[in-house]
């Protein structure tokens, strides 16, 4: 539809609409826009008309257009009458959907009040004209013996640009007598169905694309119905082997459909079962409408797979069918056309293993190898081989061991091998094994390197240096060995780069050697190790301790991972050890198999493991736990020995002391006890006043502390206290000891030590506790040092040398007081208090006490009166006698027996 | 609404013109001007195909008619078109081919109707009858086109002798005999038609090719 027609229709519609409006004079709207709901093509100009209806309130000048809330400029308006105005806009993708016409006249109250009646809008539906479908093609496939009456057509609908407009596609076909149209369910395909497939009838296909903006038609596809046919592949394809033609196979098949329907041409392809790639028979060699073909130039004794397909024989007509099912046949055998691949594997310097592969062109199943070895005198042998039928079809090359031969010294060995099949013998294969050492005269290939690329292991080398007058390399043998199997391949003498054609496995280490061959004579090899592909080791090294761990160190040892589990070159090991959460890692080179861990904590449990790394990754070995020792070996023994030595030293020292100081010890521990029977009372010292007048001026210096027991009323000098703890302990532990005869039934238990702490002064009496004696040092003042005494004044000691037990009042001069005040007997002592020796009270009190005791002693009568349980004994010692007694008055439990022992 | 009502006559008129245009296009489509040889070759191949199918159809027919099928096919009856093609020049012979095809089509229809009572609807015979009948229609159209193509100034041939006369009602035996005769005659006709078309192709198309070369 041209623009002229559209404009004409537009005017026509406007006229019709305008003429129809008076019929609806009561219509609420006074503004009307035409056309209503237009479909507009993007990129075109669109004209709309706005007119005033049934109102004189406004004119065309009051009308204005709005698109997306913006007023369209007046320049785009065309006033066509006093009540109508056109607007022309260019439709773009971004053009708003709504186009409004409004009336604005502020001076008119009616318009202002009834604003809703003076606005009208139309909805623009935008889109594109439908695109012409492209690349229409149709196909009819074979069903059973006929072509299916269903024809499927596909096409390219073009870019679907109209979002608002739906495009309908219709597939049309015309044939003599009828035309069919089918609406497509998809926008790019449809199927049309005939009653029968119209063989040999010309068909005309096309596709119509239609939307609200128009219609587009594809190119017509006009062809005879055969054009669209896709038949089934030929059936019952057979390959027939004929014995007299070892390089040929006859193929037969059955056509899939009668020739009255479709005349067919064929395509044939074949491949040997060892090869994955197909070879096509040239089309010019295949005539039309045939049902057999002879394949030629095939390999004898090879299994071939053949496939056939067909299509309409007319040039450009129809579609190729699928390939037929495989037809398989083996060509007949022929004599071997190439020599066997002879090689040797060195066992040691004196022995080699002769091996060979079947000839490449064996042309049949090899039945035996005839081997001829010449070293001095020739010898020959025949090695029969028993190949299964599957060997021929298998791509795996079989290696035959021909035998082990000894290499004589300084003599070259010549080997010749012939392969024999059921038809005949192959050409000879020759190998010259030089005498030991002679091979080294030929320099090896140089700079051998290997790398992996595209799933193959590649090698590159430089030819060996040709010595003056030396032979050139005729060929190379590339040998690879994985430790279990050896294989090889041959390369031409000018080859410097090749890929290993054998089936190498990933993660396997191969030792690859390149041998130079000089007219069959083997030269010195050059080797390299490599992997087709490296991986992570399948297992890590097992670590263990070498010996026992120490306190701060442990020696880890591990073994190399077996080669078949390394899966790559070990780049390094990493030692991990941890105690608890903290983990340490120590990388070590790949040739390290032991490592001492140091700075370990003693008496700690550690876990250690080794990680082996390749370029592909790492794997951890098994963990090994161990605990460091608490003590180093010998440390305990050292301590024990040291202690023992120390003890021994002490014992020796004690023994020596005992030996050298035995007199003192004896005196201390076993004092000589005088025989009471020999006792007599006498004065063994010069006159010593029982009550010396202590110079007043000496008292402060010599007496510092006086402890007074409330019970015993005793005071002790400060200097005596130094020996108190020992004495006290001793006394307390021997609370009931009573010295000699201390527990006599006749003698009441007595205090061997004074209750008072001040009894320290009586510690000296311990060793010389004499039950039957009481040595009383009744010097004048307690604590008074002898030095302070006038030398002229000799102390006077009274001593009872009698073995007769002392009377009670002798032993316990305070008994009468205890009896009188028994309730005070076991009262705890008052805390001691200190008095300055200069204190008048202390001196006075001491004097008073002494005086009291003297008085009492004189007053109390003699009687046996057991004291309370746990009496304290005073064990006077010689020392006390010798020193303390001289230095001061001991705090004795025995009050001075003034009555009985008063100096006379 | 008023607008739509006012547009209805216009639409009707436009639709009529469109139908006329489409119809004229269709008549053109039916007989596309093709090369003489190709068109005749197609028609010839189709004739052979129908002949092949008619042979198969007769076999199927015999197998579906019971024990006496061979007997049915040996009896000759009248009221079945003659398989021979008449006419002296190619145009007449083409017309004859066309007329024969048109004449056989009602008989095929009658046989189909009769066999519908005798066979199951799914029987292969019915399918093949339909197939041959349909192909024959296409063949008739193609022959017509050949005629128009080769002899554009001559009137379109009409079946000679007016409408085909069909036999009156028959019993089952007569129906079976009738059906076999129709198929056999049609097979013979197709054989003759194929031969005739090959001749026409040789004579007419060669002559036209030479004319085209000379012009």
What can you tell me about this protein's structure?
The complex is a heterodimer of chains A (904) and B (215). Chain A has 13 helices and 50 strands. Chain A has 904 residues and is of the alpha+beta class. In chain A, the strands form 13 sheets. In chain A, strands 11, 12, 13, 16 and 20 form a 5-stranded mixed β-sheet that branches. In chain A, a hairpin with a 7-residue loop joins strand 33 and strand 34. Chain A starts with a helix and ends with a helix. By secondary structure, chain B is mainly alpha-helical. Chain B has 6 helices and no strands. Chain B has helices spanning 2-30, 36-64, 69-74, 90-118, 124-150, 172-214. Chain B is 76% helix and 0% strand. In chain B, helix 4 (90-118) runs antiparallel to helix 6 (172-214). Chain A binds chain B through residues 13, 16-17, 19-20, 23, 174-177, 179, 195-196, 198-202, 204, 222, 224, 258, 260-261, and chain B through 2-3, 6-7, 26, 29-32, 34, 42-43, 45-46, 48-49, 51-53, 130-131, 134-135, 137-138, 141-142, 145.
Give the helix/strand layout.
The complex is a heterodimer of chains A (904) and B (215).
Chain A: H1 3-20, E1 31-34, E2 39-41, E3 45-52, E4 63-67, E5 70-71, E6 77-79, E7 84-90, E8 98-103, H2 109-113, E9 119-123, E10 125-127, E11 134-143, E12 146-147, E13 150-156, E14 168-175, E15 178-183, E16 189-193, E17 202-211, E18 214-217, E19 221-224, E20 229-230, E21 235-241, E22 249-254, E23 264-272, E24 279-280, E25 292-295, E26 303-312, E27 327-330, E28 341-346, E29 351-357, E30 366-375, E31 377-384, H3 389-393, E32 399-406, E33 413-421, E34 429-433, E35 446-453, E36 456-462, E37 475-481, E38 486-492, E39 497-499, E40 509-518, E41 521-522, E42 526-531, E43 543-545, E44 554-558, H4 563-566, E45 572-579, E46 582-589, E47 594-597, E48 605-614, E49 617-620, E50 624-627, H5 635-660, H6 662-669, H7 699-702, H8 724-733, H9 808-811, H10 815-820, H11 840-859, H12 878-887, H13 898-901
Parallel strand pairs in A: 2-10, 11-20
Antiparallel strand pairs in A: 1-3, 3-7, 4-5, 4-8, 6-7, 8-9, 11-12, 11-13, 13-16, 14-15, 14-17, 17-18, 17-19, 21-22, 22-25, 23-24, 23-26, 26-27, 28-29, 29-32, 30-31, 30-33, 33-34, 35-36, 36-39, 37-38, 37-40, 40-41, 40-42, 43-44, 44-47, 45-46, 45-48, 48-49, 48-50
Chain B: H1 2-30, H2 36-64, H3 69-74, H4 90-118, H5 124-150, H6 172-214
Helix pairs in contact in B: 2-5, 2-6, 4-5, 4-6
């Amino acid at each position: 539809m041209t623009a002229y027609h559209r404009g004409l229709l537009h005017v026509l519609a406007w006229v019709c609409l305008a003429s129809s409006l008076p019929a609806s004079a009561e219509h609420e709207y006074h503004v009307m826009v035409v056309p209503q709901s237009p479909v507009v093509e993007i990129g075109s100009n669109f004209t709309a008309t706005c007119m005033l209806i049934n109102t004189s309130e406004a004119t065309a000048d009051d009308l204005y257009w709005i698109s997306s809330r913006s007023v369209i400029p007046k320049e785009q308006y065309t006033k066509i009458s006093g009540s109508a105005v056109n607007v022309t806009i260019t439709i773009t993708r971004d053009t708003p959907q709504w186009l409004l016409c409004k009336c604005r006249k502020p001076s008119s109250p009616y318009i202002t009040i009834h604003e809703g009646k003076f606005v009208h809008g139309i909805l623009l539906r935008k889109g594109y004209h439908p695109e012409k479908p492209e690349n229409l093609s149709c196909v009819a496939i074979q069903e059973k013996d006929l072509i299916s009456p269903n024809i499927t057509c596909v096409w390219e609908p073009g870019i679907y640009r109209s979002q608002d407009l739906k495009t309908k596609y219709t597939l049309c076909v015309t044939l003599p007598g009828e035309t069919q149209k089918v609406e497509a369910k998809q926008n790019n395909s449809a199927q049309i169905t005939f009653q029968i497939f119209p063989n040999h009838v010309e068909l005309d296909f096309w596709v119509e694309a239609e939307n609200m903006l128009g219609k587009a038609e594809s190119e017509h596809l006009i062809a005879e119905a055969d054009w669209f046919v896709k038949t089934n592949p030929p059936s019952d394809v057979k390959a027939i082997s004929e014995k007299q033609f070892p390089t040929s196979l006859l193929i037969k098949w059955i056509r899939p459909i009668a020739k009255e329907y479709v005349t067919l041409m064929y395509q044939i392809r074949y491949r040997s079962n060892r090869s994955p790639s197909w070879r096509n028979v040239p089309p010019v060699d295949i005539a039309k409408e045939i049902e057999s073909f002879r394949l030629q130039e095939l390999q004898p004794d090879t299994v071939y797979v053949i496939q056939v397909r067909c299509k309409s024989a007319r040039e450009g007509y129809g579609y190729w069918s699928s390939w037929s099912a495989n037809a398989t046949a083996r060509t007949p055998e022929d004599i071997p056309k190439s020599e066997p691949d002879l090689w040797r594997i060195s066992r040691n310097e004196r022995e080699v293993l002769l091996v060979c592969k079947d000839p490449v062109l064996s042309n049949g199943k090899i039945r035996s190898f005839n081997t001829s070895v010449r070293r001095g005198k020739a010898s020959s042998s025949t090695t029969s081989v028993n190949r299964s039928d599957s060997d021929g079809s298998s791509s795996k090359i079989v290696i035959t061991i021909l035998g082990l031969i000894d290499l004589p010294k300084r003599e070259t060995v010549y080997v010749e091998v012939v392969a024999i099949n059921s038809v005949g013998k192959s050409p000879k294969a020759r190998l010259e094994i030089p005498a030991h050492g002679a091979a080294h005269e030929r320099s090896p290939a140089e700079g051998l390197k290997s790398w992996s690329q595209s799933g193959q292991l590649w090698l590159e080398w430089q030819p060996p240096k040709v010595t003056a007058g030396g032979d050139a390399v005729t060929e190379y043998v590339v040998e690879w060995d994985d430790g279990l199997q050896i294989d090889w391949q041959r390369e031409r003498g000018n080859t410097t780069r090749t890929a290993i054609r054998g089936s190498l496995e990933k993660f396997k280490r191969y030792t690859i050697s390149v041998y130079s061959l000089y007219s069959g004579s083997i030269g010195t090899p050059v080797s390299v190790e490599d992997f087709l592909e490296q991986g992570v080791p399948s297992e890590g090294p097992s670590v263990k301790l070498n010996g026992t761990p120490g306190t701060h160190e442990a020696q880890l040892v591990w073994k190399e991972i077996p080669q078949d589990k390394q899966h790559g070159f070990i780049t390094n090991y990493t030692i991990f050890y941890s105690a608890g959460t903290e983990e340490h890692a120590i990388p070590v080179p790949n040739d390290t198999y032991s490592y001492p861990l140091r700075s370990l904590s003693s008496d700690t449990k550690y876990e250690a493991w080794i990680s082996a790394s390749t370029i592909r990754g790492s794997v951890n070995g098994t963990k090994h736990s161990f605990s460091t020792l608490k003590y180093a070996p010998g440390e305990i023994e050292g301590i024990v020995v040291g202690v023992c030595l120390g003890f021994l030293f002490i014992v020796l020292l004690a023994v020596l002391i005992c030996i050298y100081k035995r007199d003192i010890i004896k005196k201390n521990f076993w004092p000589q006890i005088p025989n009471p029977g020999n006792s007599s009372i006498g004065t063994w010292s010069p006159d010593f006043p029982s009550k010396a007048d202590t110079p007043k001026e000496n008292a402060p210096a010599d007496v510092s502390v006086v402890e007074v027991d409330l019970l015993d009323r005793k005071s002790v000098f400060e200097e005596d206290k130094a020996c108190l703890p020992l004495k006290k302990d001793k006394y307390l532990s021997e609370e009931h000891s009573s010295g000699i005869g201390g527990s006599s039934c006749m003698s009441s238990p007595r205090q061997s030590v004074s209750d008072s702490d001040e009894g320290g002064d009586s510690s000296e009496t311990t060793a010389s506790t004499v039950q039957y004696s009481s040595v009383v040092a009744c010097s004048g003042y307690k604590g008074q040092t002898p030095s302070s005494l006038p030398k002229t004044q000799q102390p006077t000691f009274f001593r009872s040398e009698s073995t007769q037990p002392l009377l009670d009042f002798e032993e316990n001069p305070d008994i009468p007081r205890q009896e009188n005040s028994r309730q005070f007997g076991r009262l705890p002592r008052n805390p001691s208090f200190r008095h300055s020796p200069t204190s008048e009270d202390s001196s006075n009190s001491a004097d008073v006490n002494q005086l009291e005791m003297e008085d009492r002693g004189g007053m109390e009568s003699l009687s046996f009166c057991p004291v309370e349980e746990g009496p304290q004994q005073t064990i006077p010692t010689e020392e006390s006698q010798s020193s303390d007694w001289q230095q001061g008055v001991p705090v004795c439990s025995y009050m001075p027996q003034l009555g009985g022992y008063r100096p006379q | 609404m008023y607008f739509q009502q006012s547009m209805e006559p216009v639409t009707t008129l436009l639709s009529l013109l469109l139908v006329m245009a489409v119809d004229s296009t269709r008549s053109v489509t039916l007989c596309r001007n093709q090369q003489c040889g190709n068109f005749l070759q197609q028609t010839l191949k189709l004739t052979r195909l129908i002949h092949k199918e008619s042979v198969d159809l007769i076999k199927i027919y015999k197998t579906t008619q019971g024990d006496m099928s061979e007997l049915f096919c040996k009896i000759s009856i009248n009221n079945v078109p003659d398989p021979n093609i008449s006419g002296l020049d190619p145009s007449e012979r083409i017309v004859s081919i066309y007329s024969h095809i048109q004449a056989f089509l009602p008989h095929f229809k009658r046989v189909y109707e009769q066999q519908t009572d005798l066979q199951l609807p799914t029987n292969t015979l019915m399918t093949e009858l339909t197939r041959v009948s349909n192909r024959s229609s296409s063949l008739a159209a193609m022959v017509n086109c050949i005629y128009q193509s080769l002899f554009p100034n001559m009137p379109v041939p009409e079946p000679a002798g007016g409408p085909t006369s069909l036999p009156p009602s028959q019993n089952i035996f007569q129906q079976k005999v009738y059906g076999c005769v129709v198929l056999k005659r049609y097979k013979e006709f197709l054989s003759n038609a194929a031969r005739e078309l090959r001749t026409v192709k040789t004579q007419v198309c060669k002559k036209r090719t030479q004319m085209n070369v000379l012009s």
